[in-house]
UniProtKB/TrEMBL annotation:
BP GO annotations: carbohydrate metabolic process
Organism placement in taxonomy: Bacteria, Pseudomonadati, Pseudomonadota, Betaproteobacteria, Burkholderiales
Superkingdom of source: Bacteria
Main location: cytoplasm
Entry's Gene Ontology molecular function annotations: metal ion binding; phosphatase activity
Naturally occurring in which organism (per UniProt): Rubrivivax gelatinosus (strain NBRC 100245 / IL144)
Protein name in the entry: D,D-heptose 1,7-bisphosphate phosphatase
Keyword Hydrolase attributed: yes
Required co-factors: Zn(2+); Mg(2+)
Catalytic residue list: D15, D17
Residues bound to Zn(2+): C97, H99, C109, C111
Amino acid sequence: MSRAPAAARPALFVDKDGTLVVDVPYNADPARLEWQPAAPQALAAVARAGLAIVVVSNQAGLALGRFTAAEFERLRRAVAERLQAEAGVVLTDFVFCPHAPGADGAPVCGCRKPEPGLLIDAAERHGLDLAASWMVGDTLDDVEAGRRAGCRAILYDSGGETVWRPGPMRTPHARYQDWDEVAHHVLAQRPGAPA
């Protein structure tokens, strides 16, 4: 007797620098990690509602030699361990693009946001429902990556976006400056959520 496949799970895809943590350019030192206000608690609320939590990050510093793969791995481990210790959040994954952009700033790979490759790969690996998922990031490249992957997208407006290049795929479904509001919005959109 074969078992029916498990239903795909929705996810909250979260950019790291400027969204989950305060942006310190090219930081790979765990001692310099500082959460955006209320971010761990917001992720905990979303995770309790059944969403997978996946960090999705561009890390051109690897290609540019600003830090090593081993240094970044220590940082990645520190993010996961601190989220679990401080908020009870167990990350489903922490995926990243190690490539630098091209000379024009555009991606030269399929994984650097605004390309949707990281989200699509994580969804395939973990059985995630992209159409029921959200991407939260501090730039319109994050918004575009989410929308191109088939997710809804929230701009966490912490000042990371400086270009504001418009486009239909770069228009967020919502825009907030507060993680409590992000969590409230995502939870209010869940099927069966109280009106």
